[in-house]
From TrEMBL:
Gene this chain is encoded by: ktrB
Protein name: TRK system potassium uptake protein TrkB
Catalytic activity, EC: 3.6.3.14
An annotated GO cellular component: plasma membrane
Topology term for the membrane: Multi-pass membrane protein
InterPro entries registered for this protein in UniProt: Cat_transpt, TrkH
Single GO molecular function: potassium:chloride symporter activity
Subcellular location as annotated: Cell membrane
Pfam families in the record: TrkH
Enzyme category, top tier: hydrolase
Keywords: Cell membrane, Hydrolase, Ion transport, Membrane, Potassium, Potassium transport, Transmembrane, Transmembrane helix, Transport
Length: 447
């Protein structure tokens, strides 16, 4: 009981921190030096929340509506959201040799979704090095391409911004039309998707892969095996679905060459994993693509990284559980049994997420009765899973740009709850029931 109460307290502190940072970011974006055109506080808050939650839905064009300083604020929010403000703050404490107590370590553990507090500070140090190194390499590789198109200053900024945005699965772009101009560019596509996948598999998996490759680890953990295998399966499956559904659609990929159709389908599939970049007009996708895209977004990436959604491990656990219930046998995968507590949590996350999405999309349908249901479901799923892809407003902005004040507020809540995590979000909403030493009689329920 004490552990649950402690978790609720920790989650409350983390949540308040992210909300405070989003408000500070919104205030900074409303200042004259940060924007070129008029921006309301609501739109500034929407942008700030989208950045801190690493979503990428935009109601103002990052390239044309914000100055260089405004873009720097957005990028800083993305980095804070991706790494976690607790991690950044405690890393500064480590640098200045300040002692970190139990409460700080517990906050860090929850922020990074690390298994326990033993070694969490060492884990933090290693993660900082890896994040900086990966983003630096990504920026250098992109710079080699962008310097052929832009002058040195702009090429460098575009490279840094997109490397950080991609690794943190944010989807913000300093190009007016996103990455549409690089639709058939294999080099840029592979770099961006590699950064997205690396950030999306989670910090824990990244470190395990490093130690495994260095032969300092005999075997990968069950968690890493599930994340890596599940990620590969979902990306391949999503790529095939987009390729098949859109093959003859001249408004999306129908006019491209066979190889470019595969490349564009792959890029879109990877971005469904919680990054908001796009190289084609998603508003031109068929209904089937939008529907399955919504499902892939809801699943999301891996825990403990920059991805959102209900998490791939949650879905795998449910599928494994269903398989063994039908077949009969111990609930196991990769020769390891899954604890009942994990199965219960997976069910809780999935059911609460579906209920939450249905409520939100119903409210959106009520507020925006002139917009069809499927685009609203797509936008809701994108906000909830902190993805950022959208069918658009007919221009360069997300569909949310057309929304009323009530709808924008709802999307802001969706993005923030997606950043906190749906399980943590519901822990904040529902009060803990007091422990009762009462044994209730069992009743039969027929299914």
């Amino acid at each position: 009981m004490k552990e649950v109460i402690s978790d609720r307290k920790t989650i409350r502190i983390l949540s308040i921190g992210y909300i405070a940072i989003a408000l500070i970011g919104a205030f900074l974006l409303t200042l004259n030096f940060a924007h070129k055109n008029h921006i309301s506080f609501l739109d500034a808050l929407f942008t700030s929340t989208s950045a801190i939650s690493m979503t990428g839905l935009i109601v103002k064009n990052t390239a044309t509506d914000f100055t260089f300083y405004g873009q720097m604020i957005i990028l800083a929010l993305i980095q804070i959201g991706g790494f976690g403000y607790i991690g950044i703050g405690l890393f500064i404490f480590i640098i200045v040799r300040k002692k970190i107590g139990f409460e700080g370590k517990n906050l860090l553990k929850e922020s990074l979704i690390y298994p326990n507090m033993d070694g969490v500070l060492r884990f933090l140090k290693k993660i900082v090095i890896f994040v900086v190194l990966i983003e630096f390499i990504g920026a250098i590789l992109l710079f080699f391409k962008f310097i052929l198109i832009y002058d040195f200053k702009h090429a460098l900024w575009h490279s840094i911004f997109h490397a950080i945005s991609a690794f943190n699965n944010a989807g913000f772009s300093t190009f007016e039309t996103g990455l549409v101009d690089f639709k058939t560019d294999l080099y840029v596509n592979l770099i961006i998707t590699s950064l997205i996948i690396t950030g999306g598999i989670g910090y824990f998996v990244i470190l395990e892969l490093y130690f495994f490759q260095k032969k300092r680890l005999a075997n990968l953990s069950l968690h890493s095996k599930l994340v890596l295998s599940g990620t590969a399966i979902l990306i391949i499956f999503a790529t095939l679905l987009i390729f098949i559904f859109e093959y003859h659609n001249t408004k999306s990929i129908g006019t491209l060459s066979f190889f470019d159709k595969i490349l564009t389908s792959y890029f879109t599939a990877v971005n469904y994993r919680t990054a908001g970049f796009n190289t084609i007009d998603l508003g031109a996708l068929k209904d089937a693509s939008l529907f399955f895209g919504s499902l892939f977004m809801i699943i999301g990436g891996a825990p403990g990284g920059t991805a959102g959604g209900i998490k791939i491990t949650t879905i795998i656990v449910l599928f494994v559980y269903t398989y063994w219930i039908i077949k009969g046998g111990r609930i196991r995968v990769f020769s390891q049994e899954i604890p009942q507590e994990t199965i219960n949590k997976a069910f809780t996350i999935t059911v609460s997420s579906i209920f939450y999405i249905l409520v939100c999309v119903t409210l959106l349908s009520f507020f925006e009765d002139k917009i069809q249901f499927l685009p609203l479901l797509f936008e809701t799923s994108s906000a909830f899973a902190t993805v950022g892809v959208s069918i658009g407003n007919g221009g360069t902005l997300s569909l949310s740009a057309l929304f009323s004040t009530n709808s924008k507020i709802l999307i802001i809540i969706l993005m923030m709850s997606g950043r906190i995590g749906i399980y943590a979000f519901f822990l904040l909403i529902f009060r803990q029931e007091k422990e009762k030493f009462i044994k209730y009689p069992q009743g039969k329920v027929y299914l």
